[in-house]
Design goal:
Layout: H1 4-12, H2 16-32, E1 42-46, H3 52-60, E2 65-70, H4 73-86, E3 93-97, E4 109-115, H5 125-134, E5 135-146, H6 152-163, H7 168-180, H8 184-194, E6 200-204, E7 208-216
The protein binds S-adenosylmethionine.
S-adenosylmethionine is lined by residues 1, 15, 47-49, 52-53, 70-72, 75, 99-100, 115-117, 120-121.
Length: 227
């Protein structure tokens, strides 16, 4: 998503409610297991776009370091400008231009999150392999995306309900995204192939999927890293 029209429309859109829902959900998942992020924990936001969620993570967990990763240069320019305007130091929030799949990494992430990324990837396994190579030996994961409706009529209904007044480019992208999205059964099958069957796949509201859970021990990239 590097087209200037798409980037401008996406960056200007108001995703406050769904962005905050991601942060609230992370808090909830931590609370369920009575876990806190350690000081200097590494929180990674894949496909971070204009940095909406990365910035919220940096503001919420002020002892942690956040890394936003995206393939689109223009998206990252917006993200970087927002970081600067918010007065958050680059030591605590930085952005990297990288395209998934990510190779084995020396980074050991305590959290890997993504929002609205999975359906953009040519191969969904690129997300799951990247998550595994980033994960520390105890890493929380949370991925949210659209779920694919079961008919064109349902797609029409969701477009009417959620983007009827949005700019044309966003309406077009939203329709394309709904068509490209996966079903819960498809995502479960992806996770089984990726060796992450313990992650939970849930349908949320009328149009989202959520993948959440913990990656631990030898599932994580730590055992793939060179000594
Ligand atoms: C719909 S936007 C979501 C942005 C952000 N996560 C949010 O919730 O606002 C999808 C983002 O995924 C990025 N993207 C798509 N394919 C990618 C890839 N292979 N590697 C990294 N980023 C990718 C796009 O550039 C775009 O910024």
């Amino acid at each position: 998503m590097n087209d200037p029209l798409q980037v401008d429309a996406y960056a200007a859109a108001d995703f406050n409610v769904s962005d905050q829902a991601v942060v609230d959900r992370i808090e909830q998942l931590l609370a369920v297991d009575g876990v806190h992020f350690r000081q200097q924990a590494c929180l990674v936001d894949l496909g971070c776009g204009p940095g909406n969620i990365s910035l919220r993570l940096a503001k919420r967990w002020t002892d942690c370091c956040v890394l936003g990763v995206d393939a689109a240069e223009r998206m990252l320019r917006v993200a970087e400008a927002r970081r600067h305007d918010a007065g958050v130091m680059t030591e605590r929030l930085r952005y990297q231009r990288r395209a998934l799949p990510l190779p084995a990494s020396s980074l050991e992430a305590d959290l890997v999150v993504s929002n609205s990324l999975l359906h953009h990837l040519h191969d969904p396994m690129h997300l799951w392999s990247s998550v595994k190579s980033l994960a520390s030996s105890r890493c929380l994961v949370l991925h949210r995306d659209l779920k694919r409706p079961d008919s064109e009529a349902s797609i029409d209904g969701l477009c009417q309900q959620h983007v009827a007044n949005a700019p044309e480019v966003l309406q077009r992208d939203y329709r394309a995204s709904l068509r490209a999205a996966f079903t819960a059964a498809e995502v479960k099958a992806q996770l089984a192939v990726a060796g992450l069957p313990q992650l939970q796949v849930m349908e949320v509201e009328d149009r989202y999927l959520e993948v959440s859970g913990w990656i631990t021990g030898c599932q994580a990239g730590v055992d793939q890293r060179s000594p």
